[in-house]
Specification:
about 130 residues; mainly beta; seven-stranded mixed beta sheet; four-stranded antiparallel beta sheet; 13 strands
Length: about 130
């Protein structure tokens, strides 16, 4: 059974930073991916960032240059460093994992669609004020 546990959420002012952690058990992304998603009340879940040990990383356009996804293989943990946070980024942030690789056209890509992921954590709340 795959278990994903998020931590690191909290409340910050606009422009502040947070680092989220996702500890995984029963899963290693040797050929798959792990990603971060967020969902605000009344809105659809959206992909934020994802990482693959084979295919690299990908980010939503809205967070490029401000967020960084990384991993600690020894701890089987994925992180999301979030800088310059904006109030509109207030949401529940979820960690997700898939064992699959995804291919289109000329090669493999890192998935950032919620439907591509099979395993989910329970989320950690991020609130950005002002």
């Amino acid at each position: 059974q795959v278990h994903l546990v998020e931590s690191g959420g909290g409340s910050v002012q606009s422009g502040g930073s947070l680092r989220l952690s996702c500890a995984a058990s029963g899963y290693t992304y040797s050929s798959g991916s792990m990603g971060w998603f967020r969902q605000a009340p009344g809105k659809e879940r959206e992909g934020v960032a994802a990482i693959s040990s084979i295919d690299g990383t990908t980010y939503a356009d809205s967070v490029k240059g401000r967020f960084t996804i990384s991993r600690d293989s020894a701890k089987n943990t994925v992180y999301l460093q979030m800088n310059s946070l904006k109030p509109e980024e207030t949401a529940m942030y979820y960690c997700a994992a898939t064992r699959s690789r995804f291919w289109r056209g000329g090669g493999y890509y890192i998935p950032l669609a919620a439907s591509d992921y099979n395993y989910w954590g329970q989320g950690t709340q991020v609130t950005v004020s002002s």
